Each structure stands twice: as structure tokens, then as C-alpha cells.
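In response to the reviewer comment on reproducibility (Comment 2.3), we provide here a single inverse folding case reported in full, input and output, so that an independent group could reproduce the run without further information from us. The C-alpha cells appear first.
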């Protein structure tokens, strides 16, 4: 509920502007995104409280009817963790690839306000990461190294958002999303199920000729045992058609 409160407040404030001029909200665009992140390292013996992350992504949305659009996204994110395992410091890296495809619906309750909802299928979820490998010895200390591991799976995602046009060139946006993944651990034959809830606040500036530039801040809660409290600061370039 605390995440949804921010979106509700933004919608209410936007609705107070009765003298607003009509704004056109397009849901047909191509987008390139990049962000930097900090992830709380909640492993048993972290060497650093936060892990650094970097993401690049592309997205496309196409409004096929007046209020319905289809959407696809692809992103690749790397993160670096420092953990101590059996008294040995290790540098661990994670590379996550995520591809989603789905549809959305939007409506405009006010002249400057647009509300949308999206449902997406995670068609490709892959994590390539290094994990600790501990070899016990009866005659001495354990040998600690790293090995490669791959997680593959799919899942579902949903989002609810609001867009508010401050004026002809400036737009604010708030979004609450939830993602759940089901994946197999190829190295061990096991499986894993996780979910992430994210609140994202940002805005964009329309430069003309269908182009806009924007930025955002997001905060996520994750169910994984080894990391949580993901904070991101990102930027995007979007072309509307």
C-alpha cells in the first residue's frame, strides 16, 4: 500500500488542474535506457554493503487501437558483489538478461492525465553468475574458489502507472510494478522462484520532432536471500511515432 500511495497522490494532484490545456499522450515509441544501481548485499558475510550495477535496455510500444498497445522490452544488467566465504574474500559477478512481451491499456481521466495498466510475459530470463565453490579437506583448511552458474526461466510482470503533462514540453510519470520469475538452476538441477516489487518516479522533456529525453529514480524490494533494497538512477531517450 505504501508504494501505491505515491501513485494515488500524483493522480489526485494532477486532477486539481482544471484549467489545463489538452495534451496528447502517445503510447507508440522506441526507447533506449541506461541506469546505474546500488543493491543491498544481504549475504551472510558481505565485504561491501552495496553492490554496484549497470543496465542497458531497449523497448518498443505500438498503439494498435485507441486505448490498447502492445509492448516489448529487452535489458541486460551486470552487478558485482564482494563476499567472504570460509574466511576467503571473493569477487562475484552477475549478468542478467530479461526479455518481456505483452500489452497495455490506457485512458485519460483528465486533460493532462493518463493512466495505464500493463501485463507482460517474461519470455526470456537468464542469469549468468559466479558462485562460491568450497572444497573441504580433512587435513587442512577448505579450498575456496568460484565456478560459473546459469539460471534460466520465465515469468509474469504487471505495472500500473500515471503520466501527467506539466506543460507542452514536460511530463511526469509514476509507476508501480511487480515481477515474478520461475527458473531452473542448470548447475544443480534445482529451481528457484523470486519476485520483485518496484516503485519508479521520473519525467521526460519533449525536444521536438518526436524525441524526448528523460530520467528516473526507482526503488525495489526483492525476495532473494542474498540481495534487496535496489536503488536505481537512470536516463532514457525516446522517439515517438
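Designed residues, in position order:
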Amino acid at each position: 500500500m505504501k508504494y501505491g500511495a505515491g501513485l494515488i497522490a500524483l493522480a489526485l494532484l494532477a486532477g486539481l488542474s482544471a484549467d489545463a490545456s489538452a495534451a496528447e499522450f502517445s503510447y507508440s515509441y522506441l526507447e533506449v535506457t541506461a541506469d546505474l544501481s546500488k543493491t543491498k548485499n544481504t549475504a551472510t558475510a558481505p565485504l561491501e554493503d552495496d553492490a554496484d550495477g549497470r543496465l542497458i535496455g531497449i523497448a518498443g510500444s505500438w498503439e494498435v487501437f485507441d486505448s490498447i498497445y502492445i509492448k516489448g522490452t529487452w535489458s541486460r544488467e551486470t552487478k558485482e558483489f564482494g563476499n567472504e566465504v570460509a574466511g576467503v574474500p571473493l569477487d562475484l559477478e552477475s549478468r542478467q538478461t530479461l526479455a518481456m512481451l505483452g500489452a497495455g491499456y490506457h485512458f485519460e481521466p483528465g486533460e493532462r492525465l493518463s493512466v495505464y495498466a500493463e501485463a507482460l510475459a517474461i519470455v526470456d530470463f537468464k542469469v549468468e553468475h559466479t558462485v562460491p565453490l568450497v572444497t573441504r579437506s580433512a587435513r587442512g583448511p577448505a579450498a575456496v574458489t568460484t565456478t560459473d552458474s546459469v539460471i534460466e526461466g520465465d515469468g509474469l510482470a504487471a505495472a500500473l502507472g500515471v503520466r501527467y503533462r506539466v506543460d507542452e514540453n514536460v511530463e511526469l510519470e509514476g509507476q508501480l510494478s511487480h515481477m515474478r520469475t520461475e527458473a531452473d538452476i542448470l548447475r544443480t538441477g534445482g529451481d528457484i522462484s523470486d519476485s520483485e516489487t518496484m516503485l519508479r518516479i521520473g519525467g521526460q522533456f519533449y525536444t521536438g520532432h518526436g524525441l524526448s529525453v528523460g530520467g528516473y529514480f526507482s526503488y525495489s524490494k526483492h525476495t532473494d536471500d542474498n540481495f534487496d533494497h535496489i536503488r536505481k538512477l537512470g536516463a532514457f531517450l525516446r522517439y515517438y511515432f
